[in-house]
Amino acid sequence: MMIFVGADYMDLGLSPEELQGRMGKWFAWNDKMTQAGIVTHGNALTPQIRRVVGANRTVTDLTSAEVKEIVGGYYIVKANNFDDVQKIAEDYPDYDLGGTVEIREIMVFDQ
């Protein structure tokens, strides 16, 4: 799984044209991986965050403006190992905005 972490586009003050160009880069990257059969699933996430914490289940509603970085989305990809996913992540569109790709292996439990 590739988890995308960074600032929310709206918080960066991108113009509508910049947003459109940014989304074009995402669509192109997604199309490239989809055509190669790499991406199996993925979604963008909204900037609204609700955290439920601790034994008392304390609820806090946050927006992207209240946290330094947010998880903006994820892809589930087919790969043999971390190195393969790292190669896939080389084209991540938001490195120039300080974005991060976190690579995590999904645990599969036998039942």
Throw out a few tags for this protein.
flat, alpha+beta, four-stranded antiparallel β-sheet, 111 residues, Alpha-Beta Plaits, two-stranded antiparallel ribbon
Please indicate the count of domains: 1
Using the coordinates above, name the CATH class.
Answer: Alpha Beta
Q: Report the CATH architecture.
A: 2-Layer Sandwich
CA-atom Rg in angstroms:
16 Å
Shape: flat
Question: End-to-end span in angstroms?
Answer: 22 Å
CATH topology value: Alpha-Beta Plaits
Assess the beta-strand content as a share of residues. 25-35%
CATH level 4 superfamily: Dimeric alpha+beta barrel
Structural class comes to alpha+beta
Mean pLDDT: 91
Number of helices: 3
Percent helix: 25-40%
> H/E element string?
EHHEEEEHE
Give a short account of the largest sheet.
Answer: 4 strands, antiparallel
| Order of adjacent strands in the largest pleated sheet | 2-5-1-6
Low-confidence stretches: none
Number of DSSP strands? 6
Question: Could you characterize the architecture of this molecule?
Answer:
The chain is α+β, with helices and mostly antiparallel strands and 111 residues long. The chain has a single domain (2-103), classed as 2-Layer Sandwich (Alpha-Beta Plaits). The protein is built from three helices and six strands. The protein has helices at 9-12, 16-35, 82-88; strands at residues 2-6, 39-44, 49-53, 58-62, 70-77, 100-103. The strands form two sheets. The chain has a four-stranded antiparallel sheet, with helices on one face. The chain has a two-stranded antiparallel sheet with strand order 3-4. It is flat. The chain starts with a strand and ends in an 8-residue tail after the last strand. 8% of the residues are buried.
